[in-house]
Amino acid sequence: PFLIPLLALRTLLATCGMSLLDASPNSSLLNRLGSQLEQPPHVCVQDVKGSYKGLNEALGLDVLDDIYRLTRLAEKLTKEMKLAFTVQAKSGLTSSTQQLLDAQCSLEERLSPNQRTIREIAEDMALNVRNTCKPRFGHGAIFLLTKEDAEELFLQRDDLAAELAGLRKGHVVFSPEFEEPVME
Q1: How do residues 51-82 score in pLDDT, each as one tens digit?
Q2: How many CA atoms lie within 13 A of 4 on its CB side?
Q3: What's the distance, Cα to Cα, between the start and end of the chain in Å?
Q4: CA angle, corner 133, sides to 161 and 105, nearest 5?
Q5: pLDDT digits (tens, 9 = 90+) for 24-50
Q6: What is the 3-state secondary structure (H, E, C) of the chain?
Q7: Residue 45 and residue 167: Cα distance in Å, rounded?
Q8: Residue burial 15-26, b: 16+ Cβ < 10 Å; e: rest
């Protein structure tokens, strides 16, 4: 992987063979960060060879998405159960909710320790409502960042739009602290 300042994502992507607009070294973003931080946060970008589906499976992202879906659906059914009038409706909703929670537990038990770590990273990043590693602004790239790097990236995503547009499926953007789960 390449170790780069978060705000120099453009340079990194260019070294990966992507053409991007030139960054202005005097941009207000760089000046703001330079005045606030001694050392800007760093991220790594790894271009993963192989299939995108295989990458998602290796990181457990498909399972994590399904766990999220089951959790949200169980929450919705629980709310509906409180609104139900008849015993049959409440019983059916209770049974369905329990089946969803059982399926969720089964999926969670299948997660490897590495995939559990990735789940925790995604939840800590909070880059989107679903707490996934694939925010819309990443164009299919997978993000595994510290909370601090994620906050910085999220706050500056509009200023980094050109750099982020160069990301694609198969790229993994991660904080150096998370190199081990990414490389496994």
Answers
A1: 888 888 888 888 988 998 999 999 999 999 99
A2: 19
A3: 13
A4: 160
A5: 333 333 333 333 333 445 677 878 877
A6: CEEEEHHHHHHHHHHCCCCCCCCCCCCHHHHHHHHHCCCCCEEEEEECCCCHHHHHHHHCHHHHHHHHHHHHHHHHHHHHHHHCCCHHHHHHHHHHHHHHHHHHHHHHHHCCHHHHHHHHHHHHHCCCCCCCCCCHHHCCCEEECCHHHHHHHHHCCCCCHHHHHCCCCCEEEECHHHHHHHHC
A7: 9
A8: eeebebeebeee
Residues, the chain, total? 184
Amino acid at 57: E
CA–CA gap between residue 119 and residue 79 (Å, rounded): 26
Closest CA to 67 of 25, 14, 9, 118: 118
In this structure, are residues 57 and 115 in contact, taking their beta carbons and an 8 Å threshold?
no
Q: At what angle do helices 113-125 and 147-155 cross, to 10 degrees?
A: 40
**The pairing of beta strand 171-174 with beta strand 142-144:** parallel
At 54, list the tokens: 């295989």
Q: Tokens standing for 80? A: 């509906």
> Which residue in this structure is represented by tokens 């159960």?
81
User: pTM of the prediction?
Assistant: 0.67
